[in-house]
Amino acid sequence: MPGMVMVPKTTNTMVTNPTYARKRMQQEQSSARQSLNAYSLGEESFDSILAMDSPFVKKVDTATNSIKQVEDDDFDPFHIGDAATFNSTTSPLPTTGSSTIAAADALSTVSDASSLPALVPPKMLVKFKVHEEVSSMMSLTEGTSHVYFHGTIQAQVVSSDALKNAPFTLQSSAGDGSNNIEFTGNKLYTKTSLSKEGDKRMVHVVKIPKEIVGFVTVGTYTSSCKIEHMPLLLEQKVVRNKSKLQIAIQVRSKLTNPDELTKFTIMVSIPPRVNSNSIVIVSGEGGKWDRYKRCITWEIEHLPKGQSFMVSAKGALDDTSESPEAAASNEGLDFPVMLRCTSNDQISPFCFGAVQASGYPASVSSSIVGKSFRIIHRLQ
User: Residue limits of the MHD domain (predicted)?
Assistant: First the structure.
């Protein structure tokens, strides 16, 4: 019509022309793909966004191409990091301050180290076992016994230190104030040296390895002394009526003994003047007469403390080879008695203990956990 302007119908062309519409869609997708690549999105992420038909894809324009490609951890689309960097009012610490802080830290470390308590020395418990072989002799006319000791000392160490046992010094003392004892150390565990105090005293330092958990023999000792009250009392009585003889032996255990006496063996020697064919055991179970050794032996299993027992035998003199004067004499009519027994006790007056060894700090305590003796007691 005259006076009218014709406007191209581009919109209708996009709608009515499928080829043009498809090309237009491909161009938009390509532009969107380039924009998303700027955000380091992969192909899979892009395809998933397209599948969701998100409006973000349709609104992406060419302005997004100016975004820098950065790593995932540096992604900051709102420039928060830049604002924090440029707007921060906090000034960095001066370089000289770092040395001051280091010095303060070093001072604090030294102060803390000096304030730590000193290492506590290990606690050690030393246990002793003492066994004595005792030989004693008592005269019928004396009340005291002459006693000889040969003892063995065993020790066990229990320490709080899990790695090693500290050495300790072995000490001995006597209840009567004397110290007449000769000690011989086991060279495997004991080192003996002269005291540095100038008193000519021997010092015995014992070191037991950690791997040894039981008792070991650390040394032996010998001594002799006189003892008035033995743990047992041995008495003998001989009665003669012309040519007939009767011998009685009594053994008594002290009431103050800590344990009973066990494994008794009593032997009586018969002099040659007594006819061997006349010997008869009167009392005492288990008594045996040996005419070749000319002795009578009794064996008794145990004797409770505070109790006693008696054994006896009888015989007759052999007067056929003696004159009347010699037969009437008591010369040569001696009946020596020997007794042997054992007990869980200690006869010697010696006490043993452990103290800290010089140069090896430790809190040492000790105790005697076992005592035993075997005695041979003679009566003449």
Answer: 123-378
